Amino acid sequence: MDSTSLIGFRRGSETSPGDLDRTGRGNSESGAPASGRIAADLPVGAKPLPAGAKPLPADPKSLPADPKSLPADPKSGSPSFLSFYAPVAEPMASVETRLRRELQSRYESITPLLQHGTQLGGKRLRPALVLLSGAAVGPIGDDHVVLGTVVEMVHTATLVHDDVLDGATTRRHHPTVNAAWSEDVSILLGDYLFAQSFRLAATLDSTEACRWIGEAARRVCEGELRQLLHRDVIGLDEATYFEMIRGKTAELCQVACRLGARHSGGDDATLAAVATYGDALGIAFQIADDLLDLWGDRGSVGKTLGTDLQQGKMTLPIIRLLETSDAAGRREIARIMAGPPEQRWTRLRSRFAESDAADYTRRVAVGYRDKALAAVGGLPDTPARNSLIALAELAITRDV
After folding, report:
1. Is the pLDDT of residue 186 over 70?
2. How far apart (Å, rounded) are the C-alpha atoms in residues 310 and 343?
3. How many CB atoms sit inside 10 A of residue 202's CB?
4. Which one-letter DSSP state was computed for residue 10?
C-alpha cells in the first residue's frame, strides 16, 4: 500500500491527539490463561442463499490457514486487512468454522438467513483483535476462538440492526438482510445473534467474559441510540460526538483486546494498555469512515458519498464546519441540513472546500492512531504486536 491514502493520511506523521483523555480499563480478578486444542466441526447443509449473495464453502476444512483466503475486504478479496492477520491465521480460520457452526438451525428455512449473516462482517477485525492481543501477551487456545466468535456475532448483530435504521440495501457488496428478506426478519436476526453470542460466552469456565461482553454490548447499543436521537441536531458538539463513537464503534474493539490479553494471562497493566489501544483504534477507524463518507472513492467505499449527511448523522467534519463558521454561515448550513437530504452534500461541498474540516479531521484521526501505537509500544516485539501496529497504521490509510 502506498504511504498516502485516498483520504490523505501519511504514515508516520506526527501530531498530538489533543484531549485524548480516556484511560484503558483492565482491573479485574486474576485468572490463568486458557489452553486447549483448536477443533473444527462440520456444518449442516443449507438451502441456497438469496440472489446476489455469495455462498460460503460447504466444508469448513476447505478454509486454508492462509490469511488471504479468509473473508476479505469488499474490493474483490483485497487482503489489505487480512494479510496482517498472518500471526493468527490458523485460529482465525477456526473462528470462521465456529461462526458457521454457531449460525445454524435445525429449521431449514432459517439456516440460509443465518449463513447470510456471516458474510456481513467483512474485515473480521474484532476477532483478529482478540487473537492478536492474546498472541502478543502469551499463548492462545480454544477460549480465544470462542471469544473471537462471540465478538463477531455481537458486531454482526449491530450491523444487521444498523441496516434497518439506515434503510441500506447492500453491505460489502452483499444484499442486506432487510433487502433480501424484510425489516422484521432483520430485527429478529439481530436479536438472535445477540442471544447466541451470550449463550456461547456462557460456555466458558468464568463468567467474567459474559460480564465484559454484556457491558460492551450495552455501551454499543447506547451509542447507537444516542446517534439516532441526535440525527439532524445541528448543535452537537465534539465531546458528545466522541462519547457516541466511543460507545458505538470503539467499545467492542477495546473489549476484544482486553479479552484476548486476559485469556493469555495478561496482568492489569497489560490489559489497560491493550484496552487503550483498542479504544484509540476504534475511534481512528470511525473518524476515517467520516472522511471516506465525504471524500472517499465511491467505488471503493461501496456507497454514495455524503450518505451520513443525507441521514442526518453529525460526523466530525460537519461538526468542525459548523464550529468554524460565522453566525451567517451556521444559519445557511442549518437551512441546507433542513432541506432535501439528497441535496445536502452537493450544496455543502463548496463550504467544506473552503474550510479546514477535512484537514482537522485527518489530524484528529492521526492523533488517535498515535495513541494506539503508544499503547502497545511496551509489549514484547512479536509478530502479533507488529500486526497490531500495522492495523493502527492501516486504520487511517485505508480507502475502504
Report:
1. yes
2. 8
3. 12
4. B
Stated length of the chain:
400
Burial string for 221-241 (b: 16+ CB within 10 Å, else e) reads bebbebbeebeeeeebeeebb
Copy the grid coordinates of residue 348: 455543502
Residue 335: Cβ-neighbour burial (10 angstroms; 0-12, 13-18, 19+): exposed
Residue corresponding to grid cell 432535501: 340
Between CA 90 and CA 98, with CA 92 as vertex, the angle to 5 degrees is 105
Give per-residue pLDDT as tens, 265-312.
999 999 999 999 999 999 999 999 899 989 877 655 555 677 889 889
The answer to whether 146 and 200 are in contact (CB under 8 A) is yes
How far is 8 from 359, CA to CA, in rounded Å?
A: 9
Which 3 state secondary structure label does DSSP give 340? coil
In order of 26, 326, 337, the CA distances from 72 in angstroms are 31, 45, 36
**What cell was used for 177?**
438482510
Q: How far apart are CA 23 and CA 383, in angstroms?
A: 25
Q: Which amino acid is present at 91?
A: P
For residues 256 and 127, give the distance between their C-alpha atoms in angstroms, rounded to a whole number: 7
Contact between 282 and 253 (Cβ < 8 Å): yes
174 backbone dihedrals φ, ψ, rounded to 5°: -115, 150
Q: DSSP characters for 67-129? A: GGGSS--TTTS--TTGGGGGGGHHHHHHHHHHHHHHS--SSTTTHHHHHHHTTS-TT-HHHHH
pLDDT on residue 307: 85
Question: How far does Cα 96 stand from its chain's mean position?
Answer: 17
Q: CB count, 10 Å around CB of 321?
A: 22
